[in-house]
Amino acid sequence: MAKLVILGAGVMGSALAVPAAQSRDNQVILVGSPLDDEIIASVGATRHHPTLNTTLPDSIEVVTEAALNDADLRDADVIVIGVSSPGIDWVTSRLQTAAAQPPILALVTKGLVAAGASAPPQTYADALPATLTQPAGGLVGIGGPCIARELALGLPTCVTFASRQPANAERLRESLQTDTYRITTHHDIVGVEACAALKNFLCIGVSAMFSSYPLEQSHAKNPVAGLFNQAILELALLSDWLRAHAVTQPVADGARSMNVAFDLAGMGDLHVTVGGGRNSRLGRHLGEGQALSTVVNGPMQGVTVEGVDTGRHLSAGFRAACANGDLDSASFPLTFAILNCIDNDELFEFDFQSLYTATTNR
Amino acid sequence: MAKLVILGAGVMGSALAVPAAQSRDNQVILVGSPLDDEIIASVGATRHHPTLNTTLPDSIEVVTEAALNDADLRDADVIVIGVSSPGIDWVTSRLQTAAAQPPILALVTKGLVAAGASAPPQTYADALPATLTQPAGGLVGIGGPCIARELALGLPTCVTFASRQPANAERLRESLQTDTYRITTHHDIVGVEACAALKNFLCIGVSAMFSSYPLEQSHAKNPVAGLFNQAILELALLSDWLRAHAVTQPVADGARSMNVAFDLAGMGDLHVTVGGGRNSRLGRHLGEGQALSTVVNGPMQGVTVEGVDTGRHLSAGFRAACANGDLDSASFPLTFAILNCIDNDELFEFDFQSLYTATTNR
């Protein structure tokens, strides 16, 4: 039997509990963060999860942080970090207090962490305290196109589990895979984490195309498809760059593998992200010619847009790498167009002339 | 000055004339096929193209086949095969009659040609008569996400020109690129042609996901994204397979290159194809549980669905390759699901359990 403890009862942590609880071999404990008290109270009373807007199976044990025993953290076979980035500090301090070093630590949190004015940003694969991830066995990152509510409803969902220690990704896959939650594994956790964060950022620019070229009660589709493609090419290069500067390289043979940007964590996840959600909504506003400041003080006031945060953490290191030649500026017209909105509150402008300016023959 | 003759005044041939005519250095002659008389009459009288539903620039010369001089075909720097697959025979006989061997022959036509019960199908890069493509300099194939009307309206459009002789693709790019028609080049014409045809076929299965999993006045998005990703993975493998059996290999260094399925001709074009059009429409019907025969005799009676024709030309050779081990059946669940509808009129059924059945660690 595997014992899984999920820290954070927001939408993604709670949704992951559903496939986890499908196997009778698993014991699943879903733990509310200090911000999740209402959720825990609701699920405890009626099994209804208010933000997922669905009912959780009875076999999931649901507890508040205060009710969680340290022993459960120390005994766990798998601990899932199921919070969004503002909750990371709570998780790490809770794990350290309990002296928990589970055989497998899985990460749902998506984001980049700026590493200084001129250094490449880090993914959480590197930014988490080493006491948590070493020697406990190597973190497993989770990427791919997954709207949490659809996962909780049992709708078909395809994702990637990545770890520098492939056996860990494989063990977690064996614990969580169901008939409809389908999991592929990969060794490149930094690439998967980079894609998970940066696809939100790049989605903003792709989604601007929905409103930049209106056409007969709808919009032109060629510009959307052209920038979707460009976003993946830039994502692959950014992923390569972050991996090259990561603290620990993947253990497996990277040269043999396809860049994860061209698989579920990149191409697949960008597809679902562009299709809806807050990053896409922001992009549509920018494509109408509104400045970022106008949008975040107006129609999207109070809404957290992950891609903007990711852009802020990316910017200084990215611009420095372009300036010092570590990256080739000409390869990143979409990244620059989005960053100019975030850094300088410029209007979004993507000039298609910046594409394919020279013989490419790729 | 470059003289371009476009054979076929349907939507794609006519749309290509627009960027071609934007440069004053080009002379552009658009030639109607025997089926295009009404179009030619309309454009001749008012410049209005009835199926593109837009006005063509005055600088494009528009003529019927009967009015075309053989000398114009023999003098052309570029001849564009601008017909859909049923027009290929007209084009080839017209070129042979005129003894035309232009420096550059470009191909808009998309489709596969069955090469026998157990042989892999061919792309037009191989199936066209060698007298046309050799020694005249090597065909240039055109792929990428391009709705013809949007191109004709000057909306931003990104495409790939591919030729076994990269200089030809580059020369054509120089003749046609505008501020908004952006062109990358590639040596892998077989891959680009394979993607151009097969993306229509695979689109049918991806689009079935729009109706297979309805959710609150819309549909679940995770299954669409999962199968979009799967379609590109299968497209890359099918493209590799067709290239391996092509008559002539690319001249450039293939090992260095990315598979074109992960670029405009595959990922980009599938994005726009899934977004609308006849292949996507058929897929949505299949996803509702209707048999192909029901759809083509009912709501889509009389509508040509290119992806179905492509599937018919693919099927025997593909199944033979799976049977003899040239291809690994387990890698093609989506291809099989669509072929079962086309070959056997089975209801569309995609079992997500067929994905990631073993340790992948790709």
Show the helix and strand layout.
The structure is a homodimer of 362-residue chains.
Chain A lengths: L1 E6 L3 H12 L3 E7 L4 H10 L1 E2 L4 E2 L4 E5 L5 H6 L2 E4 L6 H11 L5 E4 L4 E2 L8 E2 H4 L2 H4 L5 E5 L4 H5 L4 E7 L2 H11 L4 E6 L2 H24 L1 E2 L2 E2 L2 H23 L19 H11 L3 H10 L4 H5 L9 H18 L9 H12 L18
Parallel strand pairs in A: 1-2, 1-6, 2-5, 6-7, 7-10, 11-12
Antiparallel strand pairs in A: 3-4, 8-9, 10-11, 13-14
Relevant terms:
362 residues; two-stranded antiparallel ribbon; globular; 14 strands; eight-stranded mixed sheet; homodimer; alpha/beta
Structure description:
- The longest helix of chain A is centred in the middle third of the chain and has 24 residues.
- Chain A is globular.
- The termini of chain A are far apart.
- An 8-stranded mixed β-sheet of chain A has the order 5-2-1-6-7-10-11-12, sandwiched between helices. In chain A, strands 3-4 form a two-stranded antiparallel ribbon. Chain A has a two-stranded antiparallel ribbon with strand order 8-9.
- Chain A has 362 residues and is α/β, with parallel strands linked by helices.
- Chain A is built from 15 helices and 14 strands.
- About 2% of the residues of chain A have low confidence.
- In chain A, a hairpin with an 8-residue loop joins β8 and β9.
- In chain A, α9 packs antiparallel against α10 and α14 packs across α15.
